[in-house]
UniProtKB/TrEMBL annotation, chain B:
It holds the Pfam family ABC2_membrane_2. The chain crosses the membrane at residues 20-38, 50-75, 112-132, 139-163, 169-188, 256-277. It comes from the Archaea. GO terms for cellular component: plasma membrane. The lineage of its organism: Archaea, Methanobacteriati, Methanobacteriota, Stenosarchaea group, Halobacteria. This is ABC transporter permease subunit. GO terms for molecular function: ABC-type transporter activity. It comes from Halobaculum saliterrae. Keywords: Membrane, Transmembrane, Transmembrane helix.
Length: 345, 282
């Protein structure tokens, strides 16, 4: 499912600096700036007091489960919806008052869109080109996103994956300074998702700022410089992939197969240094601990009179971390004190 | 230009809809039937004005059907895209919401021009070979006026379509507007004329006949009838041909007012719709 899983991520130092660095100051310009942004729909708060800055040239992964407020945030960048309070700036312009100017320099793959059923793929791209007031080769765009052979077919007959490619193609028209991609991999098969990441990487190398959302960490970790994690309308973590890796760094998951174990048998294990949690279902004992504590854990279990039959270790994954922040189940690591990571709860 | 890009895309899209294809066929058929019905007897010819002024063309076809066609083709222009999500594609590109609303008016009015023009021209050409002595200028002018009427109804429908948040409301609005402007307006005309024509009640700030005139003007089909009637009989903006100077001036004023009213219908509903659309979260 997550075919990119375990890929080496791009390090922060590798940021393309071509147009990102401002002359003289040596400081990165902000491509996207949200300050104290709140969006309420009646009683429901979709986004609460969000502060977020994405630098020019950066590839930013915007993560969180469905309904966490990712799309609402993206819709505010594009002026599809207006914030209840706070300011949103894109490319140093007000996202609401100067939205047309913002969108002229932005490529967008929105969420929940539909294509024009009766128009062909080529007509879609030509419309995007006319809208951005430029001439170009629509076929070259369709070639790049891999649907050139369907250029003259009506988009109404396209599969979900082809529609996604078509709209990505429209987003790439005119070499935008920012690409905003909302769940770009949805509807794509693993090969398509890989191509999508390659396109994102190419664009980033050209110096484009990429802001993209996903509810699957595996889709973003191989391409992004930094990620933010949304949960229930709040940004609960913001860090580089490296930083997040460090946050789970030494921790390992130790799974011990035993004859029989009770809660009482685990007391000695829990008391050990370097053990953050331990649980048992009777036949197996699962322990989250630092890697050098493993032998002590086995020893403590044997001291408690438990017969150890077998054991294995798993490195705690970013997925576990993501689930911890995002509030999913299946992970019990703690929200640690991570340098540079904002933890809201 | 952004508005042009939206209009062009919308025209391309609307012109390919089955609805429009069906309407074109339907319209050609109807005009053909009407031309057949009003055909002159053996050895006689029928003038263009007699044809276009006939009750079949003017009342049954143009002022009854054109508003219906315009509303059917346009009611979902904006809200349909909003519900399906294609509006996000449109607004992800650098278009303002004003470009979207007015681009839609232009695009849909252009799309309707296809069935209307084809519907008039095809039977017109056939008939011209036969017994009709058509004056091309009058015929084409009449088609243009008909397009103005359809554009006014497109503008009303697009305005409404921009203001509402669901397709169901838009359909309801289109049906309601049609009944208001076509059957209902027609039904109350006669009793109102009886009532107001004699002076009307005392509390009215203006004379009853003035109010009748106003009512006639407000309805786009009423304005169209004034303008097209004068045009077909060759007296549009030609007050001198009227019976007296006073009658000429009155006719002239009505023509100008009728044109102004059609212009207002073209602009005001989309502006009101835009005002609501601007403030909406999509």
């Amino acid at each position: 499912m997550h075919d990119s899983y375990g890929n080496v991520c791009r390090v922060t130092d590798g940021l393309p600096k071509s147009k990102a660095e401002t002359a003289g100051s040596g400081r990165y310009m902000a491509a996207i700036e949200l300050e104290g942004v709140t969006k309420r729909y009646g009683d429901v708060t979709a986004v609460r007091d969000l502060d977020l800055t994405v630098e020019e040239g950066e590839v930013f992964g915007f993560l969180g489960p469905n309904g966490a407020g990712k799309s609402t945030t993206i819709n505010m960048l594009l002026d599809f919806v207006r914030p209840t309070s706070g300011t949103v700036r894109v490319l140093s312009r007000d996202a609401q008052a100067e939205s047309v100017a913002v969108r002229r320099r932005t490529g967008v793959l929105p969420e929940g869109y539909d294509v024009y059923e009766r128009l062909t793929g080529r007509q879609h791209v030509e419309f995007a080109m006319r809208s951005k007031e430029l001439d170009g080769d629509a076929d070259a765009v369709l070639e790049r996103v891999g649907i050139a052979d369907a250029a003259d077919r009506r988009a109404g007959g396209y599969s979900k994956g082809m529609r996604q490619r078509l709209v990505l193609g429209m987003a790439l028209v005119g070499e935008p300074e920012i690409l905003i991609l909302d769940e770009p991999s949805s509807g794509l098969d693993p090969a398509g998702a890989k191509e999508m990441r390659e396109i994102v990487r190419d664009e980033a190398e050209r110096g484009t700022t990429v802001f993209f959302s996903s509810h699957v960490l595996g889709q973003v970790e191989s391409v992004c410089d930094r990620v933010g994690i949304m949960r229930e309308g709040e940004l609960v973590a913001e860090d580089s992939i490296e930083g997040l890796r460090e946050a789970v760094g030494g921790e390992e998951q130790l799974v011990v197969t035993v004859d029989a174990a009770s809660e009482a048998d685990l007391e000695g294990v829990r008391a050990l240094d370097g053990v953050s949690s331990a649980a048992t279902d009777g036949g197996t004992v699962t322990v989250s601990c630092e890697s050098d504590a493993k032998t002590k854990v086995i020893g403590a279990l044997e001291d408690a009179g438990v017969t150890v039959k077998d054991f294995s270790t798993e490195e705690a994954s970013l997925e576990d971390l993501f689930l911890t922040y995002a509030g999913g189940d299946g992970a019990d690591a703690e929200s640690g004190d991570v340098t540079g990571t904002e933890v809201a709860e | 230009m952004s508005l042009e890009a939206v209009a062009r895309k919308d025209f391309q899209d609307a012109v390919r809809s089955r609805w429009l294809l069906g309407l074109t066929a339907f319209f050609v058929l109807l005009v053909s039937v009407v031309v057949y019905l009003v055909r002159p007897g053996e050895g006689q010819t029928l003038s263009t004005s007699a044809l276009l002024g006939s009750v079949f063309i003017r009342d049954a076809l143009v002022t009854t059907l054109i508003p219906l066609i315009a509303l059917v083709v346009s009611y979902n222009a904006v809200v349909g895209e909003r519900e399906s999500g294609s509006l996000k594609l449109l607004l992800a590109l650098p278009h303002s919401r004003a470009d979207v609303v007015f681009g839609k008016v232009v695009g849909r009015a252009g799309a309707i021009a296809v069935p209307v023009s084809v519907g008039f021209l095809l039977p017109g050409l056939v008939a011209a070979i036969g017994p009709l002595s058509l004056r091309p200028g009058t015929f084409i002018g009449y088609i243009l006026l008909t397009l103005l009427l359809s554009a006014a109804f497109v503008a009303i429908a697009v305005g409404f379509s921009s203001a509402v948040a669901s397709n169901r409301l838009a359909i309801g609005g289109a049906v309601g507007l049609y009944f208001l402007f076509v059957p209902l307006w027609g039904a109350i005309q006669f009793p109102l004329r009886l009532y107001l024509g004699t002076g009307g009640p005392d509390w009215l700030p203006i004379a009853g006949s003035e109010l009748l005139r106003l009512l006639r003007l407000i309805n786009p089909t009423g304005s169209f009838k004034i303008v097209s009637g004068e045009f077909v009989s060759g007296t549009l903006f030609a007050a001198g041909q009227a019976g007296s100077e006073a009658a000429g001036q009155y006719a002239m004023q009505m023509e100008i007012a009728a044109f102004a009213m059609l212009g207002a219908w073209l602009l005001v509903p989309p502006l009101l719709g835009l005002w609501r659309f601007e403030g909406a979260d999509l």
